[in-house]
Write a structure and sequence with these properties.
Rossmann fold; four-stranded parallel β-sheet
Amino acid sequence: MQIFVASPRGFCAGVVRAIDTVEIALKRFGVPVYVKHQIVHNQFVVDSLEAKGAITVDDIDNIPMESVVVFSAHGSPPIDYKKAAARRLKVIDATCPLVTKVHNEARKYSAENNKIILIGHKGHQEVQGTMGQTNMKLIDEREGPNLPNWESNSPVVVLTQTTLSVADTESTVKEIGKKFPNMKVRNDICYATTNRQRAVRELVLKVDLLLVIGSQTSSNCNRLTEVARQFGVPSYLINGPDEIEPEWLLNYNRIGITSGASTPEELVERVIKAIGASKITALEGVEEDITFVLPQEIK
């Protein structure tokens, strides 16, 4: 049996920044530090930070007055900042700068009297944060175009969730363009999402099965499994070695491995060790040297 490992894979700059923010906050302000929503969509990471004293909450109202709270990498709507101010919380904003960019675009183009369409997945934390910035129409490509009944010559700007399928998003943009030919499209899918999907498209040409290491709640991990299946390669999203099915090791000789932008490399190494392949080949890919500065509150 042979393993092929994709590159790039694992943590992106925004995830590194968010995790570092929580760890520094714990050291600087002491236990506990509250985190609004999971800091990143990986349970292993969340559990590791909670073991150090972080407390994850889904509602600002559940945080004691005058506490320290870190807002997650996915971004938060303005109402969360208002609630935090009312409770006199010290807010440390770990929103990924690439998500903040989308928020800024939404407000800018809305102020210029454009109609905003957001391509994204209904209910995802990032989408909730972006939609809270201004009025906009959400298009979830999983449910079909469902385009708004605006005049065809309306000034339309299309924004996207940062962790979508590149191919599916391009298809949705084309459908929107048929109705609104003068639309302006912002390229909001982040570099890490794009690079990891490109790596999978190359990887699946060499393997019989793809294992994506990450959490079921991770949008970018789910997109990686979908890319492989579009090429006819069976693909499974697993948290770690405990979720490996024995028949996978019996029925497939060439196994591909990758991981999403919120998955620590430790989990990838555990899976590789558990499979125990006779040969491991690391594929070459785009080198990522992007880093983000820490939030102002803890710099």
